[in-house]
Amino acid sequence: MVEKTKELISVDNVSLDYGGKDGNGPAIKDVSLDIYPGEFVCVMGPSGCGKSTLLKILAGFIKPTGGTASLDGNKINGIDAQRGVVFQNSTLYEWYSVKKNVGFGLSMRHVAKATIAEEVEKYLAEVKLDDWGDKKVFELSGGMKQRAAIASALINKPEILLMDEPFGALDALTKNQMQNLIRRIWAKSHNTIFFITHDVDEALLLGSRVVVMSKHPGRIIADFPAPFTTDILRDNDDDIRYSKDFLAKRKKILEMISQDILE
Ligand SMILES: Nc1ncnc2c1ncn2[C@@H]1O[C@H](COP(=O)(O)OP(=O)(O)O)[C@@H](O)[C@H]1O
Ligand SMILES: [Mg+2]
């Protein structure tokens, strides 16, 4: 499914030191990572290891203090709709309708009203919010807000979707539904997704590739392809999570992280 062509994102020896007086040193250190078009990269690591820091560098919110991060060969410099971001807590405007929120990016770019309406319909359908467009965001459940946030990002047709623990605040059942939704969107659209989680199951259930980060200061300690998301799409159920293979991979990752934490 994933074509190994030219890398879309190239992270080259990136470090970031917030430079605080706490003497904590860099949040991430010498991180190198190439992401290819169509990959679903799940980055997993313990809390505080620098996952969000890495995502913020890719989003262009902060600049690395060492190394470079580029997209399509161009150094990432500031924010851009080319890189859509979805956080754990939605950054929607609560008092606006879902439609207005989802169409916001396009209206900022002065796209014609009729086109915006069409695109909004399309992306609301994509995230199964067809009947909710006229509701205000505060009327939605947590899962629905995250679906609206995903539609708001996708409508700008970003080259990469950056997701920072987007389902972290949801209950188990809703989380499972959201995982199925994002997996199907990925399979259908061939989007490139960079997805952060501290949940080993989530990383293995979603990623076509799983990257494991060490404890603070964050470094990459493992990076491997994961077959499960494609299996789940093929089988149309996620029973593979109980398979020997899945449980063995899960155990290995958890052992790797706990060993790293003890060192
Ligand atoms: N704006 C900031 N200023 C100073 N230190 C920060 C800032 N943001 C994060 N940190 C520190 O950087 C480290 C990594 O944080 P973060 O990237 O949020 O980790 P994660 O997302 O993996 O939990 C932590 O030690 C955190 O306290
Ligand atoms: Mg974080």
Automatic annotation (TrEMBL):
Q: What Pfam families does the entry give? A: ABC_tran
InterPro entries for this protein: AAA+_ATPase, ABC_transporter-like_ATP-bd, ABC_transporter-like_CS, ABC_transporter_ATP-bind, P-loop_NTPase
Instruction: List the protein's name.
Output: ABC transporter ATP-binding protein
SMART domains per UniProt = AAA (SM00382)
Give yes or no: UniProt keyword Transport: yes
Q: Which PROSITE patterns match?
A: ABC_TRANSPORTER_1 (PS00211), ABC_TRANSPORTER_2 (PS50893)
Q: Is Ribosomal protein one of the keywords? A: no
Q: Name one GO molecular function term.
A: ATP binding
Under SUPFAM superfamilies, the record lists: P-loop containing nucleoside triphosphate hydrolases
Keyword set for this entry?
ATP-binding, Nucleotide-binding, Transport
Ranges for domain ABC transporter:
9-240
